[in-house]
Every structure is written in C-alpha cells, then in structure tokens.
## 1
Amino acid sequence: MNEILKTLYQADIFVITIYSLVINTGIYAGSLLLYTLLSKLPFNHRLGSRQPILRSDILLSFITVLCNMLVFIIGVLLWKYGVIKLSPDESIVRIAVEVIVLILVMDFLMYVFHRAVHFMRYFRKIHERHHEHESTNMLSLFVLHPIESIGFGLMMLAVITVFPFSAVGISLYLLINSLWGTIGHLNHSVLPQWWLRKAKKMFLCTSEFHYLHHQYPGFNFGFYTAAWDILFHTLHPSLKRERRHTM
Ligand SMILES: [Zn+2]
Ligand SMILES: [Zn+2]
C-alpha cells in the first residue's frame, strides 16, 4: 500500500486517472462477477421476477463508473494538497475500528440522504431512475443518476476529511461497500436460514431487505444496517412482524 501511495503522491493527473480507471473498473467487474457466482449457488432462491437489463442500464452503469473515477481523482488531489490526511497507523486494531466507524457513520448519513431523496420532490426525480428497477439485476447497484454517485462519493470524502483514516481502512471499507451493495441488489436469497436469522438479529441489511425497498419504496432506507429504519419506524411491516416473533 505504501508503494502505491508513494507513486500516487508523485503522479500527474494522467497517471492518477489510469489508477482510478483500473481500480473502478476492477470494482465494477468484481461486482458483476460476484453477482453471477452468487446467483448460481445451488441452494439459493429467487426473490422476485427477473429485472431485464436494458441498454440504458448498461450505459448508465458506465457513467456511474466514470463518476466514481472522478470522485477517486478528487480524493487523491485533496490528499496531495493536504486537505485529506491519511493516518500512518495501519495496525489491525486501528484498521478494524476505522472500518466499523466508517460503516456506522456512512450508514447513518446514507439513511438520512436516502430518506430525504424519497421525500423531497426535486431529489426524488434524481433517485427515480434507480427505482425503475422494481426488481433488481446485476447492474442495479450501478443504475444511479450521476448526482447520486457523485453525492455518495463527496459524502465519503467529507467524512475522511474530518478524521484521518488509514489508506488500508478506507480501501477495506470501499471493498465492503461494493460487496454489500452487490448482495443488497442480488434478487436471490443466498444465505442459509440460520445465517439469515443471525444477520437480521444483528440488524444487518440482507438481499431481502433491499429487495423490499425496491418493491415498496416507502420502507427500508438503510444500506448496511436496519438500525435507523427500526428507530425511525420505516422498517417494512413484514420484517417488523418477523422481528416481533423472533424476539
Ligand atoms: Zn437499490
Ligand atoms: Zn430508494
């Protein structure tokens, strides 16, 4: 990681753009590959009807990758100009705490902004394209209005500007973020029942959780956890009933 950081620090905008292209197309390809593998697992079952992949979905997913590339470049430039500071401490405990903090902080911010875009007329228009997918497919995670993609990226950059995280902590968080987003849009239940029950008890969002959001957009705004939906009474009634029976 230190070698990459050293190269990036000395690199010009062209080299930073190449790095950004490689990383972001890697995340995109990794998500599609994971989606394909998970949806082929023998013990899974489909959650809803098949969501067709349109040509406009493919185009929009490429635009999302370009937006993510732009955010990466902005992040590197902010770091080079000293606005974002990276912690040199890369001990396992520090990284674990950083990842948990990033997930919890971003979970809250994403809940607030996601709920806001559903209720504010102007922003609802921006989020509508994602909800054209009433069911989900392998591109749903990337079928976002450019303002949403850049908005998420800038929110993330704002958080790491406030507190110096390590490069490893940030990279791990981003990896978990794309993993979670892929599983959230899976349209297949892939976890064994006992695991699923455990995930729900730990307030973790599952494929079923986000699938219900696409079906019933007034519920389940959380991304990583259901904690804020439980607290602010936006959990889908079927999950609420389930929680009452398991408690
Ligand atoms: Zn979605
Ligand atoms: Zn939504």
Note: Residues 130, 140, 185, 210, 214 surround zinc ion (ligand 1) (CB under 6 Å).
## 2
Amino acid sequence: MQSTDSLRNNRQEHRDFLNKFYGISRSFYDFTRKYFLFGRETLHNQLLKEPWERLVEVGPGTGWNLRKLHNARPSSSYGGLEASDKMLEFAKERCPFAVFRQGFAEETPYEDLLDEAPDRILFSYCLTMVQDPHKALERSVEQLAPGGQVVVVDFADFQGAPFIMRGGLRRWLNAFHVTPLDVSLLTPFTDDITFGPWHYFVIARIHKPA
Ligand SMILES: C[S@@+](CC[C@H](N)C(=O)[O-])C[C@H]1O[C@@H](n2cnc3c(N)ncnc32)[C@H](O)[C@@H]1O
C-alpha cells in the first residue's frame, strides 16, 4: 500500500504532466481529437434519448462533451472534475453554465458539485489516463444517485485491428500516458459493455440500483 506522501507526490507529478501536455495542446485539442476519440458522439446520441437531470463529467478536458450535451439539453445541470489546471481554465471559459472543481477521479469528492448527487457520471477518454482506474470507478459509483448510471467511453484492446497496428497504437498511446482499457477492469462493475469496430473503443454503463 502506498503512503499518503508518495500518493500526494504521484498526483502532483500527474498534474504537472497534464498541465505541461495540455498547456500546449489545448488550443488545437478538439480539432485533432475528432480523428481518433471515436464513440463519443454515439454515446451523446444514446444519452440524449434517456431521462437524466444532473451530469458530472470526470476529466472534461476542453468541455467539448459538456457543451454539446448542454446545447442539446439546456434544462439539465452540468459539472466537471478535472485534474489539469490548464484544461480547467479552458473548460470554465467555454462552459459558463457548468460547475467545475480541480481534483483527481480517485480521491476528490464531486457528488456535491450540483444541487443533488449526479444521475449520470461520464468518463470520456479519461479512465485510460487516470493512475488508478479501479479506484476512480469505485468512487464514481459511491457518488452516483440511486438509479443513476456511470457511463464510460474509451480506448479498448484493439483486438480486431490488424496485428501490426495493435502494438503501434499501444506504443503511441503510452507516449501520452494513456493505457488502453482492459475489459477485466469493467467486468467487476458491469456486463453492459459494447465495443466499437476493431475493439477500438468500448462503451460501458454501470447501473446503480434505485
Ligand atoms: C484525453 S482527455 C479527454 C477529455 C474529454 N473528456 C474528451 O472526451 O474530449 C483526458 C482528460 O482527463 C483528465 N484527467 C487525467 N487524469 C485525471 C484524473 N486522475 N482525475 C481527473 N481528470 C483527469 C485530463 O486532464 C484530460 O482533461
């Protein structure tokens, strides 16, 4: 088990990395990510067919998802928990309708960001960057309103991709501190798991009983 000091140092290193990485790339982030963060719009379309009132995104980045969802459903409340100060600055400016907090998915509370606990918690291409994704999922289920759902879209295991591409994709993502999701991370929480073509991305939903 890691000591509190070493955890704090790890978190600070992660935050420093994110600030450095996104400090440079945040202004062209949305333009470039539409070519490889697939599945996000599929998830938006699914979400917009369901009833929910309070959505918190963990790792909202530039606020791209929050803005799209808010444009389509302005009557709902929106919040974001973000580890990177640089992304947070950007998202706050872009999404004045939302409430944000700086913090880490594994330890920072966010159930009190909105008037009541969120009935949707969204992880969109965030879990593959957090240092302890199991802990982040456990924390999210604890903070979810009864009857709510945690929804995840992220890189999967590329099982269906041509063999020579698989290693290349993994190495390229690792260079950005991204570790594609292993389905064994999700199965203790849910069996509501679907994959995109080539197992490039996964969409998973964790249902909390009412
Ligand atoms: C690849 S970006 C995805 C941004 C956005 N969700 C999207 O779909 O475009 C990952 C985001 O997660 C944030 N992040 C990484 N580790 C985190 C953590 N432990 N807790 C909260 N946010 C984190 C990063 O700073 C970044 O904004």
Note: The chain is about 40% helix and 20% strand.
